[in-house]
Amino acid sequence: MPREIEVLLSKEQIDARVAELALRIDAECGDGEMVVVGVLKGSFIFMADLVRHLKRQLTCDFIRVSSYDKDRSTGIVRMEFDLTQPVGGKNVLLVEDIVDTGTTLRHLLKHLETKRPASLKVCSLLFKDMGTDSRKLIDYLGFEVPRRYVIGYGLDSDGLYRSLPYVGAFKE
Ligand code: PRP
Q: Is residue 73 in some structural domain?
């Protein structure tokens, strides 16, 4: 039976915030070409909306790592596939749907830094404060969410719910 979902962030709230983030990124990240790197799968909807608001020249690439077994973080990050282009000397914007324990982001930043980009910034739609001091790693943040399992707008529970146009949580 489908579980009841409480809306935490409406489509309208998300749309407005994505537009604001894009304005800030365009204003603060210089004029150079940017490589926008989405972390699959969760970031695909956020990234699609974000890049359509950005006014600069950009290319898109994707990276995939996984550390979750069902809905639980294992703490071990596995690289499943890497970028398709060299980013040495380029301005990279890493796009995440959520930073939760921060394990994935820390791993990705270390990995991308070895590719020697000219700059490396992080934009995450969501941040959940799990006491791991990860907020400081995010340059552009959409929203902080409570310590609940969140779904929708790209985020899944066991592969489902990514297509919801809002961010929600299961009712207790
Ligand atoms: C989710 C999310 C982040 C990561 C955040 O990805 O998209 O990449 O977990 O969690 P952390 O801060 O605790 O590391 P997931 O591994 O579930 O893969 P998915 O994007 O394909 O759903």
A: no
Q: What is the pLDDT of residues 8-54, one digit of tens each?
A: 999 999 999 999 999 999 999 987 889 999 999 999 999 999 999 99
Q: Is residue 113 part of a domain?
A: yes
Ligand 1 first shell, C-beta below 6 A = 39-42, 66-68, 73, 96-105, 156
Residue 129 lies in domain: 5-67+78-170
Q: pTM for the full model?
A: 0.95
Question: Where residue 29 sits, what CATH number does that domain have?
Answer: 3.40.50.2020
**Which strands, in side-by-side order, build the sheet including 140-145?**
72-81, 58-69, 34-40, 91-99, 119-128, 140-145
Q: Which of the listed residues 44, 45, 67, 96 should we mutate to test ligand 1's pocket, taking the one with most ligand atoms within 8 A of CB? A: 67
